[in-house]
Amino acid sequence: MAIDHGAFDDDDDEHDTVDEHNTDGEHDDKDHRRNREERAPRKRWATERDEPATNLARARNLNELDLAIAVAPEGDADVASHAASVATRIGAGRGRAMEYCDVGIMLRRMPKLLGPCRSGAWPLWHLTKIADAIVAVSEEHLSDVEDKFLEYLTPRRDFQALPGIRVFTRELRRIVEAIEPVSTPPDEGDAQPIPGESYTVDNEYPGEYGELRAILRKDRLAEFDATVRAIRESKIKDGHECSLADALMSMCRGDFAGATVTLNVYADGNAGENDLRLWLDGAGWLPKYVTRQWLERADNARLSANSCTGGYVPTDAQKARVRARDGGCRFPGCEVPAHRCQLDHVINFGPGETATWNLQCLCQHHHNMKTSRHWHAEMNPDGTVIWADHAGEVCATTVPHGPIAHNKRQSFDQRSTRLTRTIRAANHAKIRAAAEAAADRAANIAGETQSDEADAAREAHLDDLWANSPAKKSEEWSDDWDDEWDEWKAAGYPDLGDDPDAWDEWAGPWDYEPENNDPEAMARLCEIDPALRMNPGNVRGSKVPKEG
Question: Is residue 485 part of a domain?
């Protein structure tokens, strides 16, 4: 498994905040920039092109927008009664009536969004996703969410294609999660979260087929899917016919020798340790606890960067780079994820090099359309792709939406802010580490002092016991044994107190012969002295029974 580190900057500059000082010069500069922006023509979505079908769709979108505003209920209105009233007046079902009401409530809470919506570019089904995304957002954070939504609803390129519903919903969810995690809407619009992983087999269908249904965490499901597909590719390379179902059975039987699975996860190179989250190809952004699990599994890490290589087939690093940039099929409105796409040479490959800036992700269907020249694609250096049909009547621009897609120019102020944040974060980490190390040293010193004091007290106690023991006072004791006693004491011995019988049992029957290493005698000694049994290696000789 490889981790690609991509230093990616969101176009919304959510991390690039610049301190503004109230100086006349800066105000003049801001006024100049503001006037310049006002003079510049507004970039348009592909749904704002001046042609008959687009104009009709835009008129429809504006009519539905006005309808949503007109039927927006007051906060104390009865839901059932109001929905029935709206449904009756517009000749629609209750569900559609509620969609208009929700959009109207959303625009009342976030009035800044009315401007982009007045362009007529956004259909009702996109607006309903915005309404769903802000249901739980508090008034405290609503303004911040509104500003981020406003930036996202502003095209970065002229005639940019609208994002597909899934991509659109996922980005709205990401914005809310970054500002107020507790208000994050359910993923993919699920009204009820899935309670957990499950595995079921239904073999009761009539006929010869049954159903296998497994609900797994997204990263585990992505790994499962990648494994099945890798087995299928390996079988096909070996000349065997193999469907995905055949590959699944081969995995069950352990028949997948030669198949290799590579899963790419992507990390923001600028994110701190506590803020790091990974993007898994096929699963999207992973929760932090899952991120930690995948970091532990990674066996290779590389910096994601543009590159070129000789030959037609891209390298693994190039494939990972392009998939991380695009996030999915680059055809307008297509939502096939990147790991299910093929890599297409935007400019048809000729003798020369394969470069990441000439590669894009396309699903098989749209790849075939481009190859057959029904559509023409042109890629800009920033990764945007301009699409036009064969007649030149339809033109749209798609922007990459993968985890490392949002590379853009930055001002010197933004650069200074980013560097300041990075430097301060590193210094804070150093200071924290130094403080923790100092605390550990102080604790160790205190612990060693206490330990030394305890050892000294124990040694004094043992010396006192031995000096007054029957063995020390016996006639057989020799002063020559005092040096050896220190060694025996270091090995440990039982505290027998003042019991003469106990001391006689321990010391009386034995004589110390340093050069004698009789294993049997040592074993008998250890039976008497548990302390020596625990660590007999500390004994430099052995005790053997006296003769006679």
Answer: yes
Residues 49 and 179 placed together within one structural domain of the fold: yes
Is residue 162 located within the same domain as residue 84?
yes
429 and 548 belong to one structural domain: no
pLDDT at position 125: 92
Q: How far apart are CA 79 and CA 88, in angstroms?
A: 14
pLDDT at residue 56 tops 90: yes
pLDDT, averaged across the chain: 76
Is residue 377 in a domain?
A: no
167 shares its domain with 62: yes
3-state secondary structure 64-78: HHHHHHHHCCCCCCC
pLDDT of residue 32: 53
Overall residue count recorded for the chain in this entry: 548
d(CA 424, CA 114): 40
Expressed as residue numbers, the domain containing 527 is 475-548
How far is residue 217's CA from residue 197's CA, in Å, rounded to a whole number?
Answer: 7
Closest by CA to 25, choosing from 17, 15, 33, is 33
This prediction's pTM: 0.52
- The answer to whether 219 touches 280, Cβ cutoff 8 Å, is yes
Q: Residue 31: what pLDDT?
A: 58
Nearest-10 crossing angle of helices 124-133, 52-71: 40
Residues 51 and 182 in one domain: yes
Report yes or no on 351 lying in a domain. Answer: no
In whole angstroms, give the CA distance from residue 387 to residue 334: 13
pLDDT of 486 > 80? The answer is no
Could you tell me if residue 484 is inside a domain? yes
**With helix as H, strand as E and coil as C, how does 237-287 read?**
HCCCCCCHHHHHHHHHHCCCCCCCCCCEEEEECCCCCCCCCEEECCCEECC
pLDDT at 437 (0 to 100): 82
